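anyone seen this seq b4? input:
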Amino acid sequence: MENNLPGSVYFLGLQEILGPEETKEYFAAASVSGRRESVTPAWKKMEAHYGAKSVRGIAICAGRAAFKYLLTQEGKEIGFESDDFRFLPLRLKLKRGLTLLSAWFTQTFDTSIELEPAQKNWLLKVSEPAERAEKRFTDENNCSFFIGLVQGFMTWVGGGKYYRVVETQCRHQNAPYCCFQIDKTPLE
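predicted toks r here
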């Protein structure tokens, strides 16, 4: 996943979890653009301090926090403010929202996101053009951030309920694409 979300949504989410000073400390080496080539050193610095598993947890929490900023800054453009979306029944609203979010990410970034329905879940398949995939600039923490962002969306649409989101395949483990499985039923 590319992590140059508009309006520094990426950094606002991290800042909410780490605090402004710590975020500045870790990302001082990273350029302000937030492009993945520049934030990987910051993730590595955080991993040295917290450990890899803790940083993945931080990335998930930051993704959840970032969703509210994405909603505020890009919600209208994505289609979340339209009456056609807002008044859908829950199950249709979840599916339509994932479709809108996928389309927005595909249009905004050089990334392809496909939504595939299954019986008990949805699958989001994220891939990149071959020339970019070969460089593999991205970091597993960006996948964790994306998990959190999708969890934030599902919780928002689902009225505060928690929907499990897990990554079942990852490009960083030589899969052709990252695949995120999203449960259709919330955990109670």
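The first helix runs from residue 9 to 18. Strands lie at 112-117, 121-127, 165-169, 178-183. kinda curious what u guys think
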